[in-house]
Amino acid sequence: MAFCFNCGKPIMDGIKFCPNCGVSQSMASHNVQRNFEWAGTIVKCPSCGEDIPSFTAICPSCGHEFNSAKVSSVLEEFINSINECDRLIAENPNSVKTGWASWGKAKRFWWVVLNFFTSCIPLIIYLVTPLIRYNNTPRLTPEEKRKSALIENFPFPNEREALLEALLFTKSKISYLAAEKVDRKNAYWTRLWSAKGEQLYQRAEMLFEGDEIANNAYREIIAQKLRVSKTVKFRATSGVVILLVIIILAFLRSGTVDSIAALNTPLVIPDTELARLIPPIDDARGEIVTNNSTYFTIECYGISDREFEDYKSICKSNGFDIDCENTGSLFDAYNENGYNIRITHYSSKMHITITNKMDMNKFVWPDSPIASLLPVPKSDYGNISSSSETCIIVYIGNTTVDDYKEYIYACMEKGFDNNISQTEFHYHADNDDGFGIVVEYRGYNTMFLRIDD
Questions:
Q1: Which of 20, 150, 239, 324 sits a CA distance of 20 to 30 A from 291?
Q2: Number of domains comprising the chain
């Protein structure tokens, strides 16, 4: 029989026009023969002959239950494959190396250095993390990967007997795992077998809904899975608690907790001579750092940039406006009585120091060889803090900024003009013999001078 090359309908041999579409068949060089190919097979009930659709375990016409001689062989193949994987895993117990075991010498060295400078906090996290990450997939050996793929992908027939036997086998595997010590690998295999059991149960429900054997097996699978999951959650929670306790202890050791407490502790300013010079701070939170007759220092927390700028203005209005240095995060000034206030601000923390005025008197310039290397200051009023054969430290009062600049020129004429480092109020230089001087204008008509070899 021939077929129309246009519409595909069967036509008589030798006919010139298709009776269906009317297209001339003379254009065809030869008769088009249609090939037939059977796709799949028609499954019939062996009892009544009824056509059986896919995913059917019981004949809808006569109630015949379908079993196959292949069922036991399929399950036997699956069990044998699993047992072979278990045998290979047992013969090769070495797991995949991770963490410290997989690191090279250089990485191990820097890991030790890191823990030395961070109070071993990274090590603590390293040890506790496996307790927290029980539900993550562990690193698997090739044999374990093969077993995992087999559990996930092995196809079972749709016969009731095959599905029930597979469910019961899965239940026995999960029961065995639940009875063992729960670790990360154990939890992983439990999750994998539980997923397989759920897959088999869903297929059983679709094929023969409400089967008592399938229901009982699935309930047991879920119960054992929950048992393992409960153990895993308990260990994960314990790991988190351990980590938090260790971190808190580390913070206590480093003073972090004390800093947090100070952040929420009202700052009470004592009634002392230096403390009274600090302008009050509304709702201040912080702590007293130093409190003696020379220095009074506090730290205030939670101070914004705007609050810092406002506080500097208050200090100036309270008389701290002599030799004032006000640059960004620094405020440094004297009042008319010679007291110095120095304020720094960074990371919402304001550090305030009040320094007592220095006791100065008339002094006699030392006659030591090292003192002769320096020009004698114009003022003989001040405080010689240190004087020896190798070092002199002097605070010189009644010295203006112009006096300070003139003294620097005199030092340069004395030969201190090597390796010069100079700013507006700071001068450092060496002479040819290796002696070095530091000259600074400290404010409030005070010059600082130091020379040493």
A1: 324
A2: 3
The answer for residues whose C-beta is within 8 angstroms of residue 156's C-beta and 6 or more apart is: 74, 75, 78, 162, 163, 166, 200, 203
Backbone angles phi, psi at 299, to 5 degrees: -125, 130
Contacts of residue 152, defined as CB under 8 A and 6 or more positions apart, other chains included, come to: 192, 195, 196
The alpha carbon dihedral of 55, 61, 67, 70 has a sign of negative
Measured CA to CA in angstroms, residue 31 lies from 5, 14, 17 at distances of: 8, 9, 13
Indicate the angle between helix axes 142-153 and 184-207, nearest 10 degrees. 20
For residue 2, list its beta bridge partners: 11
| Domain shared by 323 and 389, yes or no | no
The CATH number of the domain holding residue 409 is: 3.30.310
**Cα→Cα distances 281→260, 293, 356, 435, 448, Å:** 20, 22, 21, 46, 32
Type of residue numbered 43: V
Domain identity same for 140 and 194? yes
- Tell me which range, 59-73, 193-207, 225-239, 362-376, is most confidently predicted by mean pLDDT: 362-376
**N- to C-terminal Cα distance for the chain?**
120
For residues 243 and 269, state if they share a domain. no
CA nearest to 165, candidates 69, 76, 81, 66: 76
Tokens of 90: 């047992």
pLDDT in tens, 152-208: 888 777 777 778 888 888 888 888 888 877 777 788 888 888 888 888 888 888 888
For the chain, the 3-state helix, strand and coil shares in percent, each to the nearest 5, are 40, 20, 40
* Cβ burial, residue 117 (10 Å; 0-12/13-18/19+): exposed
327 φ/ψ angles, rounded to the nearest 5 degrees: -130, 105
Residue with the two structure tokens 């963490």: 99
427 by DSSP, 3-state: which? strand
Sequence-ordered alpha helix ranges (H) in 133-211: 142-153, 160-179, 184-207
Nearest CA among 315, 307, 349 for reference residue 332: 315
* Structural domain boundaries, residue 152: 69-253
pLDDT of 166? 85
d(CA 386, CA 91): 79
Which residues, in sequence order, are bridge partners of residue 152? none
Least confident of 1-15, 42-56, 287-301, 331-345: 42-56
Give tens-digit pLDDT for 233-249: 777 677 667 767 776 77
